[in-house]
Write a structure and sequence with these properties.
The complex is a heterodimer. Chain A is mainly alpha-helical. In chain A, helix 3 packs antiparallel against helix 5, helix 3 packs antiparallel against helix 6 and helix 10 packs antiparallel against helix 11. Chain A is globular, with a radius of gyration of 19 Å. The mean pLDDT of chain A is 88. By secondary structure, chain B is α/β, with parallel strands linked by helices. Chain B is 35% helix and 27% strand. Chain B is built from eleven helices and 14 strands. The longest helix of chain B is centred in the middle third of the chain and has 16 residues. Chain B is globular. The N terminus of chain B is likely disordered. The chains are: A mainly alpha, B alpha/beta. The interface between A and B is medium-sized, with 26 and 30 residues.
Chain lengths: 250, 318
């Protein structure tokens, strides 16, 4: 496992572009914070901080997953990986979770920038916030695994990048509260770990959470389900590769 | 499993069809052969013959359309896991490694994939880098490597798990002669350790010098299989006689000898083929009589066998 992580870290480090999403984030937050100051709405600062974190976590996760797959295909590694499919799949899981977890740094960043600008962005219950953020990272990694499976199956996954971000910002309640969405998609937001977890994160930051245990339990279940779905999709696609239906070279 | 005897690899009636938009293509057509334990079998054939497809099926990367194969008694479709533990695979080409990682980093990753724990993996990687003469540059990014070095890293990866059956797909393609010869030595060492080797190549020199037996495959079909010497004898290929200091006016006399086929002649050199010993004797006699004694006789090689058996389609559009 450490070998997979260190390998992934070296690959990421050799392509600094992968940090783009995380690096741009503080800039976004600066813009938002400045606007808040101009509009004299410092009360919105915590929401801005969390939204910026949520969006960059999700975008970073999708970006990383499609990049890993594209890179592995370009290098001809997927084909080699099929000789040890279970291990290769596991290495993907570890690599994607590991890289997605880097977005936790982004959360710290936006909070600190907010504080430096004189806003009260430090969450009321820090422990709960960190816990929920970690669960969100895991869930995002699960979604990223699903994307990587898709990426193995079809070529040029990166062209789908936009389709993989904005709809999910909406569905996850990052931009607007999820219950403002039209009625027909409510059931989707209810089973989507992100909308569930993001609301919990906002409440934890504001310091008024009730039913912590049950909400955490539901989030944990949704996150595990998302991880499971992602890992299974990858397994299915790698198995399909054996039938010769998957483009292994790029 | 029964019926495989001492064979390491048994391929039975193997076919693979690729459905494409235009026309389905039969990449392998009813291929059957065995490879004994400890044997080195060469797989010879032109581009598109089906060598890589065969290699991919045997190593479980691809499913057959019909027929099957067993590796050490394990079925490549049903016991894929056991097969994967038994084979080491070297796929040809430049790719298959992370070009921005060093050889050591690449190999450690693959060692982990092969289930070696971190410590064992590190030890095994160092050992292989040493054995393959890569230690000096093991910590440089592989994208700076020459073709020969890259292929040694590929070989190191194939050897990580100490596989019983080593399968290599055109390992020396594009290598310079020195690198290729060094590569052959590495393969001989593996074989001396008892590893069974399946080697797809279109390097005749390599096939003739390394392989106990060769299989000629073309258009997805097995055309011939056997020890190079046996195949050559069976094929009744002709020996070639080359005489330096030849004079064109002697040609009619040479042509008159039965069993001699003149290939080319000019004022300095004659190249002719002889069908049997009698013709050879008569030709040599005739040449020596007119004072020509710089003569060489070349036995037929795999190259000629290959040319005789496999039609030249490189210039045909497919
Ligand atoms: N994935 C594939 N899809 C369609 N056709 C393929 C595929 N792989 C190989 N082929 C076809 O099968 C034939 C055999 O190819 P291959 O096994 O690569 O030959 P070789 O390795 O001997 O050059 C070729 O005609 C090739 O075009
Ligand atoms: Mg090939």
């Amino acid at each position: 496992m450490t070998t997979y992580l260190s390998t992934q870290w070296r690959l990421v480090a050799s392509q600094p572009g992968l940090f783009a999403t995380l690096a741009i984030m503080p800039l976004y937050s600066l813009v938002f914070y400045t606007t808040l100051r101009a509009q004299d709405r410092p009360d919105l600062a915590p929401i801005v901080a969390l939204t910026t974190f949520g969006m960059s976590m999700w975008a970073h996760g999708m970006f990383v997953a499609s990049n890993i797959v594209e890179n592995d295909r370009r290098e001809g590694v997927i084909q080699q990986g099929l000789l040890t499919p279970a291990a290769y799949q596991w290495s993907m899981v570890i690599r994607i979770i590991g890289t997605t977890a880097l977005s936790l740094v982004a959360l710290a960043e936006v909070v600190v920038i907010g504080v430096l600008l004189g806003f009260s962005t430090v969450p009321e219950s820090v422990t709960l916030c960190v816990l929920v953020a970690m669960l969100l990272v895991l869930g995002t990694a699960g979604a990223a695994l699903l994307v990587s499976a898709l990426g193995v199956r079809v070529q040029a996954i990166r062209s789908l990048q936009n389709a993989l971000t904005y709809p999910f910002y909406l569905l996850g309640g990052l931009i607007l509260p999820a219950d403002w969405l039209p009625e027909p998609v409510h059931w989707l937001t209810r089973i989507f770990f992100l909308s569930h977890g993001f609301r919990l994160l906002q409440d934890a930051a504001a310091g008024h959470v009730t039913d912590v245990t049950s909400r955490l339990a539901v989030l944990l279940l949704l996150v595990l389900a998302q991880l499971l779905v992602g890992a299974c999709a990858l397994a299915v696609v790698l198995r399909a590769a054996r039938a010769g239906r998957v483009p292994l070279y790029g | 499993m029964t019926g495989t005897g001492g064979s390491m690899l048994a391929v039975r009636g193997l076919s693979r069809r690729f459905e494409s938009r235009k026309a389905p293509r039969l990449a392998l057509d009813d291929v059957t052969f065995d490879v004994a334990r400890g044997e080195v079998l060469g797989l010879l054939g032109p581009n598109g013959a089906g060598k890589t497809t065969l290699v991919r099926i045997i190593t479980t990367l691809l499913l057959p359309t019909s027929g099957g194969a067993t590796v050490a008694g394990h079925d490549v479709v049903r016991d894929a896991r056991a097969v994967r533990r038994t084979v080491g695979l070297l796929l040809g080409g430049e790719r298959g490694l992370y070009s921005r990682l060093t050889a050591r980093q690449n190999l450690r990753y693959w060692a982990a994939l092969h289930g070696l724990d971190t410590r064992t993996g590190r030890r095994r990687v160092t050992e292989l880098l040493e054995e393959l003469g890569l230690s000096d540059r093991a910590d440089e990014q592989v994208r700076t490597y020459s073709r020969g070095m890259l292929q040694r890293v590929h070989l190191a990866r194939a050897l990580l798990s100490r596989a019983e059956l080593l399968i290599m797909d055109e390992p020396t393609n594009g290598m310079d002669p020195h690198a290729a010869a060094a590569f052959d030595d590495l393969v001989r060492r593996q074989r001396a350790e008892g590893t069974t080797v399946l080697l797809a190549t279109h390097d005749m020199r390599q096939a003739q010098s390394l392989c106990d037996r060769v299989a000629l495959i073309d258009g997805g079909r097995l055309r011939a299989i056997g020890a190079p010497d046996t195949l050559l004898t069976d094929a009744q290929l002709l020996r070639t006689v080359t005489a330096r200091g030849f004079r064109a006016e002697l040609t009619p006399a040479v042509r008159a000898i039965g069993g001699v086929l003149v290939q080319s002649d000019d004022d300095s050199e004659l190249v002719a083929r002889v069908t049997d010993g009698a013709a050879l004797g008569a030709l040599l006699n005739a040449l020596v009589t007119v004072g020509i004694n710089e003569i060489s006789v070349t036995p037929p090689s795999l190259t000629e066998l290959y040319r005789a058996r496999i039609s030249d389609r490189d210039f045909q559009l497919r």
